[in-house]
Design a protein that fits this description.
It is a single chain. This protein is mainly alpha-helical and 192 residues long. The protein has two helices and four strands; from the N terminus they run αββββα. Strands 1-2 form a two-stranded antiparallel ribbon. A two-stranded antiparallel sheet has the order 3-4. The chain starts with 5 loop residues before the first helix and ends with a helix.
Length: 192
Amino acid sequence: MRTPPPSRRLVSASAPATLLLLPLLLAGAADAAPPLVGVSPQDEAYFAPQVIACRDGTGYFPRSRLNDGFCDCPDGTDEPGTSACPEGKFYCRNTGDAPRFLFSSFVNDKICDCCDGSDEYESGIHCPNTCRNINSIAEAKHTLDIDDLFQKLRGLRTAVFIELGLVVFIFAFCFARRRTRARRRHYILKPC
C-alpha cells in the first residue's frame, strides 16, 4: 500500500481537531456580548448574566435576545436600545452634558434626540455631538452674569442722571415760579 505524502497526513489528522474547535469558536463568538446600547451605567450589571429577568417579573430571556428587535418583556426590559417595545426607555449618556432617558420610540427615528447622537446608531444618519461641557456652561453663565451686571449698572447710571436732571429742573421751575409770584405781589402791593 502506498502511504500519502506527509503534508496530506497532517492535514487529514488535524481536520477533526479543526472541526472540533470550530463550534467552540462559534459558540465563543455567540457568547460575546453585544455592546449595551441604551443602558444606563447603573443597570449594566443587571444585564451582565446570560439569563436576564424582566423587571416586572413576567419572565426571563437569554442575553442573546437583548436588543434583538423583538419585545420579549411587556415592560421593555429586553429592548433598551431599540424601539421594539412601546414601554421601553433609552438611556442617552450625553458625555459632557446631563444624561437623560428617552422613550424607545425615539430610537433610530432619523431625528437626533440625544445630544451625542447615540439614539441614531442604526438609522443611517450622522448626528453631530452637540453636548456642551457642563463646566464650560457654568463659566459661560458666570461671564454672562458679569456682562449682564455691567449692562444693568450702565442703565442704572443713566437712570440716576435722568433723575438728577428732573430734580434740578423741578427746583429751577419752583424757584422761577416763586420768584415770579413774589414780583407780582411786589408789583401789586407797590403804592402808586
